[in-house]
Write a structure and sequence with these properties.
Elements lengths: L2 H19 L8 H4 L15 H25 L5 H11 L9 E3 L6 H7 L7 H11 L8 E3 L3 H10 L3 E4 L2 E4 L7 H19 L8 H30 L2
Helix pairs in contact: 1-3, 3-4, 6-8, 6-9, 8-9
Amino acid sequence: MSGRLGRLVGTLVGVALLLLAFPGTAHACELVYQQGMIPQPAGCSSGTATAAALTVTAAVAIGVVTLTVAGYLSGAMSRSEFRAVLAALLPAPPATVGLHSRRTAITNQEVLRQGIGLPRTMETVLHHAELAGIDLQDVDVEIVEDTDTLRYFDFMGACARTDDLGIQLGPAAFVDAETLVRTLGHESIHVQQWRDNRVNSNVVALEEEAYAAEDGFVERWQRAAEEERERATGG
């Protein structure tokens, strides 16, 4: 099951459980029938208007959250926008641990301002990942360029970040091919750490593991890139 499909199923199950948790749901119809203008059908049990109003309010809130999640899953909003909307709608969750790649000689904002580096596209990401043997299957990868995120990345000295939602790549990750390969390899290790439920607030060992894996990905990329060049030139 893909990450997005899994989140969608989880959301639908959560909505169903929330609806079942409100005993006033059966009384919501009283908002329509309480004036006696329309005959109350059998099965619409009596209840208080307060319970009905609470149910309707909860249903509206659930609907807004569901539409927000659907917008993110459909690609209508970015991950940053998704987080901002949920932060406004829901109680603050426990802080999410973010794992970063910190191998940059130039800031993300400078790369964006100067317009340098590789094309910042998913085609570029997937091509280099394939050459390096980096598994990005079922991984949400987002290329971020919004000002707030880039300021945060530059404050952290990072060109990428991985959390439980997936990978975020800043412009500095695309400054050259080797940097991109190292970044993708590094972040792919963090993805696996999340999947293995090994991420906690003590990130030193997790980062050491990710950095240690980078050279292997670079070596595979260099061999594959050389073979690709030889095929292109008929060598």
